[in-house]
Specification:
The protein is an alpha/beta fold and 463 residues long. It has 19 helices and 9 strands.
């Protein structure tokens, strides 16, 4: 991709340039994280100059609230309050840079919340404000070493989650020799970043493309964002529902900036810098992000049946798999493939619980699974389930004095159950005992099995 920032005398941001430009397109908040002297504020101030914006640059570690709004005074009739504006007041600003945002106290961070999230101060709308940018030093380095930043504290998670992109900027050792030479040259000091309005024209064009994409969001982009969010959460990297929607916007903006052409590389870039955890001191594992991206990208590019099949296998809970047999159903053939693959690959205890739950209603034609899938479930379930769908154990239910080493744990679980639930659990656990299958957590296992039954009962309206 052509490097537009270099026209403004900004060097070293080539790898993240599509992200910076995408933030200009959406006009959503942008946070840069980097060591001292990496050009964070220079970049953002240069963008404001190139876009010819009325700009405010605040140091959050020093600023008082009066610096933002001016000095309050009562109206002549004492019915309200007006503000005596200073030259640095925020009221007429079109872009705002909150520098050193990680060096202000939490209560002051909260005062900046409405500015960053809602373009408001004291509940009053800042009608001209378009861009909200911020910069900070890393807050994850150990104190007392050469690269530590005393006073740089993690952002409040709610505040951090309001930044659309949280970008870690490159340091000197990450730059190639040519870029290092351009940065070292002092001849550009003090010059305005003015490209004759070219940046502004480009942004307007990208924004038009972005708005068109927003009107008709590609289903593949939605699938990518939802699947990526689910997988990140499963990797203990929680992504909020609001962040998933923001991720979709970010993906569309990067697509617009990239010539309305989505690619695996640009989506990985957008996903990487849409994760806000760096702002509160957690550096995401890049391998987890890459693995998440690959699965989400490959799945989102496949046809609907293949997408559904991947989602079925990614689903961890048995009840979730049962539910997916009825959600966005791709047809009996695909459901059959899903069931047969799952039974062949899953741990035996999971395959048994799934088969015992689904097989009876499958025989009655109430589950969208073909004959091959029914036969595979029957190989497991037919030992205790007859054609009418009733539990009927034939091997060991009368052997109350069994000496199986797992019987004690199973009995403790069964003792807490009553009625049909106890009958079903008894059959299932005895099947596992006879086949020497051990369950690590019988209580959790029984509950998961019961959830499968509940889902089926709810969906098919069975008693």
């Amino acid at each position: 991709m052509e490097q537009h920032l270099s026209r403004l005398g900004v060097y070293g941001y080539g790898n993240v340039e599509p992200i910076i430009l995408a933030a200009l397109v959406t006009e959503d908040p942008l946070l840069l994280i980097g060591k001292a002297g990496t050009g964070k504020t220079f970049l953002l101030n240069s963008l404001s100059e190139a876009l010819r914006l009325e700009h405010r640059h605040y140091n959050a570690s020093l600023i008082s609230f009066d610096d933002l709004v001016g000095f309050p005074y009562p109206t002549p009739d004492f019915a309200g309050v007006k503000y005596l504006e200073t030259p640095g007041a925020v009221w007429g600003a079109e872009s705002v840079l909150v520098d050193e945002i990680s060096r202000c106290k939490p209560e002051h961070q909260n005062r900046l919340f409405s500015l960053i999230q809602e373009r408001c101060i004291q509940g009053m709308k800042l009608k001209k404000l378009r861009y909200r940018w911020a910069a900070m030093n890393p807050c994850t380095l150990e104190q007392g070493v050469a690269d530590s930043y005393e006073g740089s504290v993690p952002l409040d998670q709610a505040l951090a989650d309001r930044f659309a992109f949280v970008v870690e900027v490159p340091d000197w050792e990450h730059l190639d020799e040519r870029t290092q030479g351009l940065i070292a040259d002092p001849r550009g000091d003090g010059l305005l970043s003015d490209d004759g309005g070219e940046t502004g024209r480009l942004v307007k064009g990208w924004q038009k493309t972005y708005r068109d994409l927003i009107k008709n969001v590609p289903k593949s982009t939605l699938n990518y964002a939802c699947l990526a969010g689910t997988m990140l959460c499963e990797s203990n990297l929680r992504i909020s529902p609001r962040r998933i929607r923001q991720l979709v916007k970010n993906l569309l903006a990067v697509t617009a900036v990239s010539g309305n052409s989505a690619s695996s590389e640009t989506f990985l870039l957008a996903l990487t810098w849409s994760i806000p955890h760096r702002a509160w001191g957690i550096v995401p594992n890049p391998e987890i992000i890459k693995a998440t991206h690959k699965i989400a990208w490959d799945t989102s590019q496949q046809d609907c049946n293949a997408q559904w099949l991947n989602k079925f296998h990614i689903e961890r809970e048995l009840a979730g798999k049962v539910r997916k047999l009825f959600e966005d159903n791709p047809g009996h053939d695909t459901c059959t493939i899903a069931v047969t693959q799952f039974l062949a690959q899953a741990p035996m205890e999971n395959a048994a619980a799934f088969a015992f739950a689904v097989y009876p209603l499958s025989l009655q034609g109430k589950v969208p699974v073909g004959q091959e899938g029914i036969n595979e479930m029957g190989k497991i379930a037919a030992k205790i389930v007859n054609v009418q769908g009733e539990m009927k154990w034939e091997e060991r239910t009368k052997e109350k004095d069994t000496t199986h080493p797992e019987y004690g744990r199973v009995s403790q679980v069964l003792a807490t159950l009553t009625g049909k639930r106890r009958e079903r659990a008894t059959q299932l656990f005895y099947y596992l005992l006879v086949n020497n299958i051990t369950v690590d957590d019988p209580v959790k296992y029984e509950r998961e099995f019961d959830k499968c039954i509940t889902v089926l009962r709810t969906i098919t309206q069975t008693a």
